[in-house]
UniProtKB/TrEMBL annotation:
PANTHER family: LIP-DOMAIN-CONTAINING PROTEIN-RELATED, PTHR34853. Gene3D superfamilies: alpha/beta hydrolase. This is Uncharacterized protein. The keyword Hydrolase applies. It comes from the Eukaryota. The keyword Transmembrane does not apply.
Amino acid sequence: MHPSRSLLLAWASTSAAVVSIPSAPGLDWQVPTPPSRDAFYVVPEDIAKASPGSILRHRRPPSPIGSGFETLELHASHQILYRTTDSEDKATATVLTVLIPPRANLSRVLSYQVAEDAASVDCAPS
């Protein structure tokens, strides 16, 4: 078979498989508001007055925390906007998400930082 026909056949069969995947039953998923349109992520104008590490805002996440079509089973989750310093030594803020699993030992903390190299706040993992 000609290579371009093989590629076309592979693409067509993959596309058909993707289109035919059923949605997960019973889940009412909504598209979350991107950080660029969410007032929670707005850096306060008086940010320089806050000490590094100061908590500026706190909330429960507005959408379920999940992976794919599965919602994570959590005891609780929180989003925290806190004061930090950027690469030019200027005051700014960033958000972290705290996930507390069921039956958690609250005397222990696991910290996981995702590498991020993006100029858009909408690319932020939290």
